[in-house]
Design a protein that fits this description.
Blueprint lengths: L9 E4 L7 H16 L5 E4 L6 H9 L2 E4 L12 E4 L6 H9 L3 E4 L3 H15 L3 E5 L5 H7 L6 E4 L2 H6 L6 E5 L5 H14 L4 E2 L5 H16 L2 E5 L5 H12 L4 E4 L14 E6 L5 H13 L2
Parallel strand pairs: 1-12, 2-3, 2-4, 4-5, 6-7, 6-8, 8-9, 10-11, 10-12
Helix pairs in contact: 4-5, 8-9
The structure holds iron/sulfur cluster.
Iron/sulfur cluster binds next to helix 1 and helix 4.
């Protein structure tokens, strides 16, 4: 399909894209631990990052993902990296009992949410976490809410929630502002004196806004990142909603022939996508013959 190649193609990258501060910090910590720890492998509970290529690279460096509930004698005497999502205190204690050396890569923004939950629990308040109940960050925060907690994922769930006593609301860091606002409106109507914590991380919104600007200046969009990365998939959904021909690829090898027909192609990437994969896609776009 060389006839589709467009020698005039201009590739423009989003002003904000790729790894966020928390993911970058977790990967750097895991790599540094693997490099300095002679008792490799270094373990993580679940994949450190939602990107298969990055996970393969980490494995090659001696960072191996165990299942998130898969804790046993293997961790004795080994370094275990706590992911950016964090873990509940009980899980941390269990790892310590088993003799693991903990390397805490919990994102500072997630630590702030955990501290808030613990603070409310110490005053006897219940904590409502707005987010995905199966997400590691949510189960981690719930573990700090020892006076009781609930997870809601939609205004309908907020309407149906039964909870006694003073309540505070904390958002999963990666949910959308509008989603949080609409759920909090329901909770404020249903629970008197509810306190809402502003815990949404700007990283996701920053990438969404940068994508909107990019789409206005380009003819087509390529989103780079793992198919298992929720925020990468959301970028792709947004690109489509903005009315641009769009593709979600994990690597340059997945670029479709059609993209080479466009003159101005925008590139963005989710918060877990390594810079090397973005650069590889950009190079493939401009160098195809
Ligand atoms: S998205 Fe925000 S909260 Fe989540 S790991 Fe990245 S910086 Fe931390």
């Amino acid at each position: 399909m060389a006839s589709l190649y467009n020698p005039e193609m201009i590739v423009k990258r989003a002003e904000v894209l790729g790894r966020c501060m928390g993911v970058r910090r977790a990967v750097d910590l895991a790599m540094a631990t693997a490099d300095s720890d002679a008792s490799r492998p270094v373990y993580t509970l679940g994949p450190l990052i939602h990107n298969p290529q990055a996970v393969a690279e980490l494995e090659a460096r001696g960072v191996v993902a165990l299942g998130s509930d898969d804790i046993d004698e293997r961790v004795r005497g080994k370094s275990v990296v706590i992911r950016a999502h964090g873990v509940p205190p009980l899980l941390r204690s269990r790892l310590e009992e088993l003799g693991a050396r903990l390397v805490d890569a919990t994102c500072p923004r997630v630590i702030a949410s955990q501290r808030k939950a613990r603070g409310y629990a110490s005053r006897g308040w219940k904590v409502i976490i707005v987010g995905d109940r199966d997400h590691g960050e949510v189960t981690g925060i719930a573990g700090f809410a020892s006076s009781g907690w609930a997870v809601v994922g939609s205004p309908a769930e907020a309407e149906a929630l039964e909870l006694e006593g003073p309540v505070a609301v904390i958002a999963q860091t990666t949910i959308k502002n509008e989603e949080y606002r609409s759920i909090c409106e329901v909770l404020a109507r249903r629970f008197s004196g509810v306190e809402v914590v502003d815990s949404i991380c700007p990283a996701t919104e920053d990438r969404q806004r940068a994508l909107a600007r990019l789409a206005a200046e380009t003819d087509a969009i390529v989103v780079v990142g793992g198919r298992n990365s929720a925020n990468t998939s959301r970028l792709y959904t947004t690109a489509m909603a903005l009315g641009k021909p769009s593709w979600h690829v994990e690597t340059a090898a997945e670029l479709p022939d059609e993209v080479f027909a466009y003159e101005r192609v925008g590139v963005t990437a989710g918060a877990s996508t390594p810079e090397s994969l973005v650069a590889e896609v950009e190079a493939a776009l401009v160098s195809r013959v």
